[in-house]
Amino acid sequence: MDSQRTQNIRAVSARINSFHSSIYFSQTVGAEYAKYGLEPGVEGNMAARSAPLGRVNPGVVSAAYYNYSPNFVADMLPRLWETVTPEQMVQARFDAVSAFMAELFGDRDDIALLTEAATQMTETLAPVLATMEFAGRTLAAATADVIGGHQATTAFEKMWDVATVAREFRGDGHVASLVTAGVPGIDALMLDVATGAGFRPRAAQKTRGYTDEEWQTAQTRLAEAGLITVDKDDRGFDLPTITEAGRDLKEQVEVLTDGTVAAAWSVLDDETIESLLSPSRDLLRVIAKSGAFPSNIFARPEKKAG
After folding, report:
1. Which pTM was predicted?
2. Strand (E) or helix (H) holding 231
């Protein structure tokens, strides 16, 4: 990372990511998806996030998600579309976001401050979204299309809309960067787990649908490559820890990812980007304290970037 500007874009992007992904483990959101016959958690989230792509083959979703097991995705899709349509799930996610944001922010004493923070984020990031070039970014493009038709009613719903497009835009760039660096999806997931700042190992394996054999094979491969070491946690499960070589590889990918979003962010000067740090921090504190990222799933939920 070669500049304070890049550091600030990464920090804001991570907080945007957390704002978006805070819905994934909510019982309130799961209850909205259950109205359509879906199991809360992985099944509901799979249908909701992939719904903008329409009724596509599982391979399309696997390619877009990148770090999910293709067999796991193929087992869920298109089976889910026999229960609910993609169009219904687009609306279901908007309804779920509305309910979740009302629960998260509705009766707080500092609602005026937080509303101002969300509004500042949304208005400041609007030119960034307007400058985004979606060619080659399948999931981001599809997501932006459906969000473009959403009539958000609160500052927090509007912020979620903006955060979601920005998150998927950088995410598609990150996938392209991983491909360029030659890092398979399961390896990218495990390297992230090994930092100790995201998913716990078993939670990552379960939510992404990898078998024990697939997980062990990847773990052994990365250990032999010197990218992680493997110890045991207090329950006797394998606990991967990233090495300096692993961190270097992750940083190489992040530098490539920075390049994929630089043009969109070029419409904001350094001072304006820096001005987003405070409001994004205020919103992230609320999310972190709400328990949106459960400690049995995330090692350090307050650091989770999605």
Report:
1. 0.95
2. strand 228-232
